[in-house]
Amino acid sequence: MSAVLKTVNLVKIYSGGAVPVPAVRGVDLEVGEGEFVAVMGPSGSGKSTLVHMLGGLDARTSGEIWLDGRRVDTLSESAWALLRRRKIGFVFQFFNLVATMTVADNVELPALLAGASAKDARERREYLLGVLNLTERADAAPGQLSGGEQQRVALARALANKPSLLLADEPTGNLDSRNTRDVLRLLGEVHRDGQTIVMVTHDARVGSLADRVVSLLDGQIVDDGRITRRRPSARAGAGEVIDLR
Ligand SMILES: Nc1ncnc2c1ncn2[C@@H]1O[C@H](COP(=O)(O)OP(=O)(O)O)[C@@H](O)[C@H]1O
Ligand SMILES: [Mg+2]
After folding, report:
1. How far, in Å, is the centroid of ligand 1 from the Cα of 240?
2. pLDDT in tens, 171-226
């Protein structure tokens, strides 16, 4: 399995305040192509800081980040922007939708920027808004939506150009159980399509959908476990544990 994403001794120290805050303290992480990794851990353990660095939104203090075999922690902001447009979808806790555009245009924009035809961008948008129960909200402005609706629009937008890597920070944080279920179904589909997913979550249901759970504590990985599942079919012997990957 080739590594899509790799970090080497990645460190982030916030030094803007009176006291420097070590948020990520030497993370070595390798994510294989098509893998679905859930990042879990208590509040303040460095989860958001880590995924922000992986998407080039927060500069590292030291260490290395590699994407598809290429070193990226040394890239300029504009090179990062291009990389995100081409291959990374990002879902944040704060949703950064374009306030002056409709929901539909927000979702189509990344696909158009990535070079999709107007027809393909529209079809992809219709599909994503459909599975996320947002079809009726297509012509609304983001400011007219609830927090949970904005969160789902942000996910639709992140998936619009079928990024090879999806980074998400608590994408189900504001959702009720029905919408959580629909988001999880979509993530499962995206995963089956072969997209690589790195997702911060405190939600055990999301964690159980992943291939692997990486646990952070005080900015360090304290546990990194691949999940083995029990096969429900009768073909497996009772209690036999198999790895579905
Ligand atoms: N912009 C910032 N400036 C200073 N400290 C920060 C900043 N962002 C996060 N931190 C601190 O870094 C640590 C990790 O935060 P964060 O990555 O947000 O954790 P998590 O997402 O796991 O809750 C916390 O101690 C937090 O207070
Ligand atoms: Mg966070």
Report:
1. 41
2. 888 888 888 888 888 999 899 999 999 999 988 878 888 999 999 999 999 999 87
pLDDT tens profile 27-37: 999 999 999 99
Q: Bridge partners of 221?
A: 216
Domain that holds residue 227: 3-242
pTM (whole model) above 0.90:
no
Q: How far is the CA of 57 from the centre of ligand 1 (A)?
A: 14
Count of beta carbons in the 10 Å neighbourhood of residue 2: 10
- Provide the domain count of the chain: 1
Q: Check pocket membership of 215 for ligand 1, CB cut-off 6 A.
A: no
Amino acid of residue 74:
T
Which residues, including other chains, have CB under 8 Å from residue 21's CB and lie 6 or more apart? 13, 14, 15
